[in-house]
Amino acid sequence: ALGGASVILIAFGVLGDEERAETDAGEARRIIDGNFTSAAVWALAAANLLERRRAGVLMAIGSVAGDRGR
Fold it and tell me: Which of 29, 28, 36, 30 is nearest to 12 (CA)?
């Protein structure tokens, strides 16, 4: 799994359409799934792998948009 990588970096997301997301649940869900749910699932999988190896580093880069609740 991951070819023996010892450092895993999670850095991805979608900006989405903020105005649309305020009224369109589908757009809001797309943004949440891309920026939170997907990142959380990848982080969990990576953490489990590194814990089994008893070594490695997991890093995640978040967006400043999260500070604004976007």
Answer: 36
> Cα–Cα distance between 49 and 56 in angstroms, integer?
9
pLDDT at 10 over 60: yes
* Cβ(45)–Cβ(33) below 8 Å: no
Tokens of 11: 């850095």
Indicate the pairing of strand 7-10 with strand 57-60. Answer: parallel
Instruction: Name the token pair of 17.
Output: 């359409």
- Any residues with CB less than 8 A from the CB of 15 and at least 6 apart, and which? 65, 70
- Model confidence at 66, in pLDDT bands (50, 70, 90)? low
How do residues 22-45 score in pLDDT, each as one tens digit? Answer: 999 999 999 889 888 999 999 999
Alpha carbon of residue 7 to chain centroid: 16
